[in-house]
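INFO batch 0412 | record 1 of 1 | parsing
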Amino acid sequence: MYLFLIFLMGVLARYTRMFYRLTVWRKALSHIPQLPLDNIWKGHKMTLEKVKHDNTYLDEHIRWVNEYGQSMVFWIVSQPILFTADPVILHEIASDLTKYRKSHFLPNRHYFGEPLVGTDSVLSGNGVDWAKKRKVMAGYFSKRNMVNLFEHMNNVIEGVEMTRIENDIGNNPRGKIMDLHDTVAVTLYSCLNTLGVSDIMDPVEMAATAKHIIGAIPKSFFANEVARLAFVLGKEKKDTTELIKTLRNKILEKLKEVVPVPQEGTGDNVLEGLVYATKTQFGLFNGQCPTKMAERLVNDTVATILVFDNMVKQLAVLYILLENRPDIQEKMVKELRETEVNSYGDLDKLKYTEYCILECMRMRPSLLRGSRDFKDHVKLKKDSTFGHYKIPKELGVGIKIHFSEYVQQMNPKVWDNPTEFKPERWSNGFSPDKYNYMPFWVGQRSCLGRHLGMMLMKTIMYHMNRNFDVTQSWSEASAPVWLQSMATIRLTGDVPCRFTKRVPQQ
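INFO prediction complete | emitting tokens
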């Protein structure tokens, strides 16, 4: 009886809290455009579940922006979400580290604790100390340092990896159907050896590990409590947790061998740079690394490994987009085969290939959307602002701030025929407003590896298309689909392509 009363009181408290938020809080935010509620108890949850099911989640956000304005409030049950596509507010979010912080409650951290990348890695951290570490690391990923890195990575891609693909094909004149995603992934993870991330795992094992871990994250978005409980207690979560532990332990062993560079600068070994940057963050330059520092170093290394998957997905999606545009693919391949690339500077000659990659990142950015909290997330110490909107201080505990790179880059009021894959739009020095095209985000949180990413994608495309004919080989029924409801781009299946050895024309 007592247990039933306790349960009943808990349910009553929950629904009282929900009702309070959806009435009192909704009134407090009434000066910001709000979507009509589905109902008083669920907010907009039913609408969001429908567009997730229809895979139109972000397309619906574009419709909202064009109907209700650049900033609005919607509700997930009693959770208020401030969504914005306003360039002024996006600039504030990107530049003001004292006001906004990266959201800590994300599916990968919630369901795997914090063993993936933590909340303090070079990707996920916040604050002044994080900014110092990031500044130290910037030199390793600068465009100037790409000149040196290109030579090493080009040798790996041209020699080791193209030979591996050729051996996989064997002597079959018809070639072999392989998953483009997995083929590119192994190639990219082989390149990690040139960054000092060697001997942690074999590239094939590392690619498979990253694919499994990242593939488990979408399973965190559940239709109901029963599905959530089944995942938490099920084999997949257990297996994923074990993979993460294995990866982290191997990284920790490798870090024991690393001798940090004596000063910041550029070089090949990113692990050395991470050690130095983290020592700078902790103010420690002598003696053993404390446990907390070692944890951050492991978090940073895991983040470096997993972020390579963004490049894998980007090239896989490029081939999905090209499947319906053989004319564009033919023009791109022609450029790749007629251009000689022997140095980092030579990659600039691949103009049309770059246009194709830029257009792919516009239509299917690897980062689809982002989330922020107000820095004083427990309770704002004073009334705050969101652009020209006032945010009452008592609401700081519950508000989430959302934005979307995809929405900025696919809005028909900003882009001409946004759903058309049109590489030519990037010709003649076209340069869109940075808040309408931000596949690498912008400001102080912009992607450190943007120059590395572009270099690797162009280099892989160059060697892959010079050595092989690559033909999309899926049926309409089995075509890979990308999911709009994720924070980063996810595919529903493999990307099968036929690789055939190419005999260069004399």
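INFO post-check: The longest strand covers residues 71-76.
INFO record closed
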